[in-house]
Amino acid sequence: MCRWLAYSGEPLVPAEVILNTEHSLVAQSLNSPLGKETVNGDGFGFGWYPTGTPGANPALFHSTEPAWNDENLRELTSTIESPLFFSHVRAAAGPPIQQSNCHPFRYENWLFMHNGYLKDFHKVKRDLTFAVDPSLYPRIMGTTDSEALFHLALTLGLVDDPVDAMAKAIRMVEEVGHDHGIDFPMQGTIAISDGATVWAFRYSTQGRSRTLFHSADMGTLQEMYPDIERLRSFGKRARVIVSEPLNDLPGLFLEVPESSVSVLDASGYSTEPFLQS
Questions:
Q1: Dihedral pair phi/psi, residue 270, rounded to 5°
Q2: Could you read off the pLDDT of 26-51 as tens digits, one per residue?
Q3: Closest alpha carbon to 24 in 46, 44, 43, 5
Q4: Which domain holds residue 37?
Q5: At 256, which CATH number?
Q6: Rounded to two decimals, what is the model's pTM?
Q7: b/e 93-119 (16+ beta carbons within 10 angstroms → b)
Q8: DSSP character for 216?
């Protein structure tokens, strides 16, 4: 459906991972070997937290241009630095190609992006959007199932407990979907951040979720590959979570297990089961 990337660590010029790796996110927008669709050219988004201002709300840049054809993306990601950023390339699966449908989505200091779908969203859209808190409903600017899911999770307490809120939101999606005769209502990988922590979910009702990986410890990688100069440009806390690996180096990327959530903060990764029977 789509491809996405989340970075956290020392302030970094985002182009280093969005543009300059062997299988960068922009490269994946043209050729995604592990994606459901090979080409993800229906717009893109970039969201970043500014360096040196803890607690600040993130900035956003969305475009309906293919990521590989947008000079503004190259200018922006080659100029700024950020300690935490999200980027997403879109393969539209129904909702129109417009800026308001590009990920990531933002609420105050929170960012959200999704690769996947709520199956037969047109059948469940009314029930799910009517479950969104009235104070949040006007903030839904686009027409995607992903944005509706984000606001449903906000309604169910995402700001206080992202893991519990996402579990409640997905269970509601499944219950409503089953009520409408949909066998496998939920599919996807999801990234959420408050500017300090990243939560990355891999879950589908069918148990066959889209791919998701996280990088290994950077210090370990620098010891494993002392001759690769590029690795020395990253700080010890540099981590990425990605839809598919950014290069082919053995040991650099580890698969996030099915039905789990990987939490990335200043201490590194921790992974726990998510909505397992």
A1: -140, 140
A2: 888 877 667 556 666 688 999 999 99
A3: 5
A4: 2-273
A5: 3.60.20.10
A6: 0.95
A7: eebeebeebbbbbbbeebbbbbbbbbb
A8: P
